Amino acid sequence: MAASMKGQKPELKHYLRSNKLPDIYEALLTGLAVMCPDDPLQFILDKLRNLKENGIDELNWDMFVEEYMKPPNKVITESNLDFIFNLDDESMIDFIDIPVNIQRGQGYFGGRFEGITKSRKIWPTPEMYATAYGHYNMSLKNMCFSAWMQYYLHKKKKKLAMEKKMNRAALHHAHRILRVHLNVWRDWLRYRKGCQAMAYHKLKRIYFVSVGIVLFREWRAVAKRNKDQREYFERLERGENVDDEETFGQGDGDAQDKLSGQLGIELAVKVFSFLDIADLARCACVCRSWKVIAYHSSLWNRLDFSKVRNRVTDLVTTKLLSKCRPYLIHLSMRGCSQLHSATFTALSECRNLQDLNLSECKGLDDESLKLVVKGCKIILYLNLSHTHITDASLRTISKYCHNVQFLSLAYCKKFSDRGLQYLSAGKCSKKLEYLDLSGCLQITPDGFKSLSAGCTMLQILVLNEFPTLNDDCMIAIAAKCTKIHTLSILGSPLLTDETFKRLANNRHLRKLRIEGNQRISDLSLKAIGKNCTELEHLYLADCQRLTDASLKAIANCSKLVVCNMADVVQITNTGVQSLAEGSCAASLRELNLTNCIRVGDMAMFNIRKFKNLVYLSVCFCEHISEKSGIELLGQLHALVSLDISGCNCSDEGLSSLGKYNNHLRDVTLSECADITDLGLQKFTQQCKDIERLDLSHCKLLTDGAIKNLAFCCRYLTSLNLAGCKLITNLSIQYLSGVCHHLHTLDISGCIIITDKALKYLRKGCKKLKYLTMLYCKGVTKHAAMKMMRHVPALKYSDDEIPIYYGYK
What we know:
The protein is of the alpha/beta class. It is about 45% helix and about 10% strand. It contains 28 helices and 22 strands. Helix 14 links the parallel strand 7 (about 405-410) and strand 8 (about 435). Helix 11 packs parallel to helix 12 and helix 19 runs parallel beside helix 20.
């Protein structure tokens, strides 16, 4: 179109401009391009009709485009359209419109028009020259301004470049100065490190010399003690007379008071904290400084009268309670049968008491307990087991003990369901977390329903020795007490799978103890293994219906720590394999397979996968051989306690066990009849840290074995020699001369031992607390009675040897 309008007359161009034909064209073209109508011709006719009706005064280039389709920027400008229609042609400036024969009318689109005749040519006027001159001057000014601006920008750029160079130079200078100072500092640091290295080597040499001196002194002391001990044993073997007072390790002869003189008060109080009430009373009588330490307040916030239960009286307790009542927090009167109302009256004044144990107090009744709980209102732990309290006491507890969390009513026979109803209706019911009702056979299902309705926050429930406990009782508990995570129901044979399925649905169970239940089956364990993923402790002793499927069900309890399947005779190697291949293998620390007679060597092979196993019992598992089973247990390097009683273990197996695992602390070898002195000697030479050892009914052991045991295992604390008929007084003399930490000893059935052995024990084993001497015919009753003054717990009889000892 541009080419077609190039040579047209100016009048035509003026006509197009005055009637806005380019604008109409632009608006139509824009509408067609943007809207893209299906019928373009009809679109054009509609828009032209719209223009005819509304006129062209408000004409705009995008008026035919809907609002939502309008572009943000103008695509075709007026200058472009002017160029298309050649309206900017220079020929337009040579003519001035002079109207001749004006004819006014209305155009097609409603606009006004008038006839135009051809204009005559006019020369430029002075005003036009002035305008042109001004335009020229303005162009020169613009040119000069542009040149000046370029010069200015050039100078500015040059100045910025110079500033940049100066900054770089200054930075380089600063870095150079820093480099010089760094070199000086580096030389100084090298010098200081050299000095420190020299000082370190000197201190290191001094340290090693000091350590060497200490080690040499200790080695010299140990060597001297071993020499004296060896000479002592040799003199005993030669039959020479040894002074009864001659023992080793009984002190250094220094009788200075280091507690009050050299140690600080804090350390002295820490030492005294390991003493009981009787010992503290004796220490207070030594001197004034010890009396000050013995009466320190931190030593009297916890009192335990159970250790002196047979001697404590109302006079003693009232005196002590009156002195320490402001800071007394923990108090135990378990088994104190000689206490009466005076003690309980003094006890009611201990307002800060939080932990109270009145178990087995025969003098406790409803009135005494009411007096105590009315005064001690912040009690958290209350133990009333083996007492004669009734429903009135439980009503008192519910009324005054608002914060009690721990409550033990074990073997209290005189309260009834009404007492539990009082307890569940009291203010303490919502805070009670621990409840022990063991042996309370008088409770019926109605009592358990009342208990579960009020004590919904129970977390630990103990119902041991409860042969009348049935599913109705436990279902009521499981329905309301949904937060129970620890449950102990030892000796409840009437419970079935239904109870444990209900308990498993609560999903909080972490510790479960069951014993002697012949109705529980694998279905219960499957439900527990599926729902109780937090299970940590599982005790299922003597549950005969359980099989390998039970171990497979709990194998995926990844947090299982203790698994006790004692006397579950249907457990085989397959069950142990399932347990070892499950996710619990990494966390299991204790495993008890006592009397699982179908467990054999393959189970021992799989037990090796329990890398963190600390305790293992496979006693009386007769199918475990010595070479393929016992020796594999030595590869459990984390194992500390082992029970292989009644297994096929001889000297070779015992030697291999000690060779591969010298970290054992507690070993039970009862009824291992093939063990001799040689095997025990090799074992004790390798496991010198043994603390507890059971050698009962190892009939081939003699005094030589006990000699090696005493020489190697000096930290022995518990020893069982029952049924070792070849043991004599010489063995007891070996033990009393070296094993001064021994506190438990069983010599039942040692028929050769006489009164002289007790004399050795009194002189050497000062820490002995438990001594068992059943069927010891060589020990007289008079000597045993005399020994009772030195040993708190002593059992003695001179009856005939039972048949099961196997003596001929």
